[in-house]
Amino acid sequence: MPEKKRKAELLSPAGDIDGAAGAINAGADAIYLGTEEFSARAYAKNLTIEETIEMIHYAHLYHRKLYLTMNTLLKTVEFSKALSILDRLYLAGLDAVIVQDLGLLSCLHQYFPELEIHVSTQLSILSAAGMKWLKEYHVTRVVPGRELSLTELREMKKTGLELECFIHGAMCYAYSGRCLMSSLAGGRSGNRGRCAGPCRKQYHQPGQKDAYLLSMKDMCSIDQIKALMDAGIDSFKIEGRMKAAEYTAGVTSVYRKVIDRIENGEKYVVTKDDRTVLEELYIRSEIQEGYYFRHNSKDMISLSDPAYAGCSDALKEDIHRRYLEERRRYPIQGEITVCQGRPMKMTLQLDGHEESVEGAVAVRAEKRAISDADIQKQICKTGNTLYEISKLKIVNDGTSFAAVSQLKDLRRSAIEKLEQAVFSSDRQSVLQHEGLILNKLQVENRYINKQQYSEQNPAILIGVKTKEQLKTVLRYSYADGVIIDLMMFTDTVAELLRRISENRKKWYLRLPEIIRQKDIGKIREQLEAALAFTDDMPPEGIYCSGIDALRIAGEFLGRYGENSLHGNQEIRGGQSIVADQGIYIMNESAENAVLKHAASYTAPLELNRKELSHAIRKDARELIVYGYLPMMYSANCIVNTTDGCDRTKGTTRIIDQEGREFPVLMNHDYCYNTIYNCVPLSLHQEVSQLYQAREAAAFRMEFTIEDAGETDRILGFFQNVFSKGTPEGTEKDTWKGYTKGHFNRGVL
Question: What's the pTM value of the predicted model, to 2 decimals?
Answer without folding.
Answer: 0.93
